[in-house]
Hints:
- It comes from Enterobacter cloacae.
- The protein is mainly α.
- The protein is 78% helix and 0% strand.
- It contains four helices and no strands.
- It has helices at 2-6, 11-25, 34-43, 47-76.
- The radius of gyration is 16 Å and the shape is elongated.
Amino acid sequence: MPVIEQLNYSGAQMAALSICIAGGSIVVSHVNDAGFWLFGKFTGATEAQTLKTWTLMETILGTTGAIVGMIAFTLLS
């Protein structure tokens, strides 16, 4: 990662940046996600119910993770 290396981030800042990226990667999950189908089958929910609950949960989880990563990065700066 040559671009990031030029920014001279500490190891802790790199970890916080990784958390931000990971959190942002799971926002707005849909039927293309294997977890969507597993959740639906295990809970017995219909596709519409799974879409409403799984997507909302993943959006909250991803947004929260990204925000926590941003706060951690700021505190470590």
